[in-house]
Amino acid sequence: MTAAPTARVPQEARETQEAEETARSARWGVARSVLRLHRAALIVWGLAVLSLTGWLLWLTEVTADEARAKQEACDRAAQDWCDMTVGILGYSAPMDGIATLSAHSFLTVAAFAGGALIGRELENGTARLAWSQGITPARWLTAKLAVPALAVTLGVTVLVLVFRWAWKPNQDLIGTGWMHESVFVALGPAAVGYALCALALGTLTALLMRRALPALAVSVALTWLLALVLTHFRTFLWPARTVTSATEEVYGPDSAWQVEQGALVHGSPAPQVNHWSCDGTAEELRRCLDDLGVTGYYATYHPEAHFWPLHLVETGILLAVAATAVAASFSLLRHRTA
């Protein structure tokens, strides 16, 4: 009486194991299909990362020493034009160019996500063909997001690490500081945040529009607008420091990000009032400042120590937007395929 149930146990276990192996194979099959379908884009991305990395290595190991030697020769000869040529053409300009390419690589990610990754498959109907072959829409979208997200995260992380390694010891040869728009992003994880956010926004845009070219254009415009907004309000992401003086104009340290500077008019900041607002002799200058109501001077700035607080807050905003876009994408896809 008990032999039949006992005999069925191994059979049920084998069936469960086979079902798990089939599901695992299906998951990897979707990932492999994404890799195969977009291998050209992945190859181009890998070559771009390798090219920029190699360029940074060359600049740091070869060009930096040559530029510094020329700089020292110019200093000894006291030739200002030579100093400018070495600083701009020798090392600073290429580093600025790499920072710009690294910091704005998210635009390429947005174009790829909105166009080739999602928009084209929805427009051509290949997505529905995949869904009809036993691949659920949620699994399809997961694979579509996971594979490029991994490639983008790895690639941008490499660029950030190599750029930081190249930028830190050679700041004396670089004309732009840490607060520069592109350098600020290229020096930390915000570069990864922008790329992942672009991937998520591009995916959501493609699911909404279901047309490759319109989705590509809107994805790029949307991520560019987000970057402009965050750049404009970047100084407000962390409390800045303010110094004041009752007798003379004040400034932040040389390495600081100068946010605002001006006079205190009846105790209130007035950035439009400064030493250019009055001229003449010392007595005329004093009388003019008294007439304007100047009672002191102030300067608002972010010290270099504020880089990480500012950077991490911006990264958190980007990741929050990306998570929201991903959740909206899955919700929209589930609604349309229910």
Summary?
The chain is α+β, with helices and mostly antiparallel strands. Helices cover 72% and strands 8% of the residues. The model is unreliable at 15-23 (pLDDT under 50).
How do the strands line up in the largest sheet?
A: 1-4-2-3
Helix content: over 70%
Q: Structural class per helix/strand content?
A: alpha+beta
Give the terminus-to-terminus CA distance.
Answer: 46 Å
Strand content: 5-15%
Number of strands: 4
Q: Tell me about the biggest sheet?
A: 4 strands, antiparallel
Contiguous helical run count: 12
Order of helices and strands: HHHHHHHHHHEEEHEH
- Unreliable residue stretches: 15-23
The overall pLDDT, averaged over residues, is 84
- CA gyration radius, whole angstroms: 28 Å
Bulk shape: elongated
Q: How many domain regions?
A: 2
How would you sum up this structure, described in words?
- It is a single chain.
- The protein is an alpha+beta fold and 338 residues long.
- It folds into two domains: 226 residues; 65 residues, no CATH class.
- It contains twelve helices and four strands.
- The protein has a four-stranded antiparallel β-sheet.
- Strand 2 and strand 3 form a beta hairpin.
- Helix 3 packs antiparallel against helix 7 and helix 9 runs antiparallel to helix 10.
- The longest helix is centred in the first third of the chain and has 39 residues.
- The two termini are 46 Å apart.
